[in-house]
Design a protein that fits this description.
eleven-stranded mixed β-sheet, globular, alpha/beta
């Protein structure tokens, strides 16, 4: 398989159908290809090439195992894996979020991971049946420009952003997997009606972006007052321009608010290739966990301390939710599309 780079994909109707029709799609057959040897693995990665290519290079350097990667959105790749079914062309799915992983667990496509892998992280950051494991964590935050709003005037709940006073002032990225998982969490915690109402309000109030980084750029430039992003985007920019040159700041909502969702990037093994299991365990080892902390400003899930300027993971006032409950992605995508936030 040739390396393929897939960027900027939007969730298609086919993707939604693929995730919805799990039983039918897992039985689909495709033309077979040679099974990779134990010295190579094929990864479908919902994490971007810019973010993890150096990490994958380090894995090959340490283990000698070669990697071929296909990059795309996590939901898009989950749909593709469902379509490929028992004839899946990947050994590992490296997802940006727990929701896409859960969709494949429900389809029965992951191999069960041994406890020597899953026990490396807290139970709330892995599948209950050990079919996937989180490898890094991130918090949803409100990035805001203090020149445009005082900290004392910030919303205490994400639902406050539905107020017409926020029209044209708040940025969101509805085609982004992290936003979609957050909306799924809102559905689980606050119900479908409340979620639909909030999304409808976002159609009126929000400025739409494709990526979290674009939201932060707009906040920094004063084009919008605030935006919903993952915390590490702020630190990526701070590393580039200097923290003293950052114009925006980060805030969390009140304790337990769904806007503070802590989600994980994680992996599931799709084949019997032993090297795939090696990769999953390696991601929870010292090299990878330090990479997530030091290079991407994410949270280690094995106990390595976060960057000094970040609150500790266990101090974030995130909502109580089983991340496996983020699996019903198709319904979320439908709600987002029906609200007019995506095509």
């Amino acid at each position: 398989m040739n390396n393929t780079l897939m960027r900027g994909l939007k969730i298609s109707a086919a993707a939604i159908a693929a995730i919805t029709a799990v039983t039918a799609l897992t039985g689909c057959a495709k033309e077979s290809t040679p099974t990779p040897t134990a010295e190579s693995i094929t990864i479908y990665s919902g994490r971007s090439e810019d973010l993890i290519a150096p990490l994958l290079e380090a894995f090959t350097e340490e283990t000698g195992i070669e990697i071929e990667v296909r990059y795309a959105g996590s939901a898009e790749l989950a749909a593709q894996i469902l379509e490929e079914g028992s004839n899946v062309q990947a050994d590992v799915f490296f997802s940006q979020d727990a929701g896409a992983l859960g969709a494949l667990t429900e389809a029965g496509l992951f191999k069960t991971l041994d406890s020597d892998i899953t026990d490396l992280v807290d139970a709330k950051y892995r599948a209950a049946d050990n079919t996937w494991v989180g490898v890094s964590g991130r918090s949803r935050v409100l990035s805001y420009n203090p020149e445009l709003i005082d900290a004392a005037d910030l919303p205490t709940s994400i639902f406050d952003l539905a107020d017409p006073a926020w029209k044209g002032k708040i940025g969101i990225a509805p085609s982004n997997a992290s936003f979609q998982s957050f909306v799924t969490a809102m559905r689980v915690i606050d119900g479908e009606a409340a979620t639909t109402e909030w999304l409808t309000a976002m159609k009126e109030n929000a400025v739409i972006f494709e990526k979290n980084g674009q939201i932060l750029e707009a906040v920094e430039a004063g084009e919008i007052t605030a935006g919903l992003i993952n915390h590490y985007y702020w630190f990526e920019r701070a590393a580039e321009v200097g923290e003293e040159n950052m114009k925006s700041e980060m805030a969390w909502f009140e304790a337990g608010d769904v806007g503070n969702l802590v989600n994980v990037a994680g992996v599931g093994v799709l084949s019997d290739n032993a090297a795939a299991v090696t990769f999953a365990k390696w991601l929870l080892g010292e090299t990878a966990q330090k990479f997530f902390v030091e290079k991407t400003s994410e949270y280690s899930l094995t106990g390595i301390p976060a960057q000094a300027w970040l609150p500790a993971l266990d101090t974030i006032a995130s909502p109580e939710i089983d991340l496996s409950a983020l699996a019903p992605l198709a319904e979320t995508l439908e709600l987002i599309r029906n609200a007019g936030l995506t095509d």
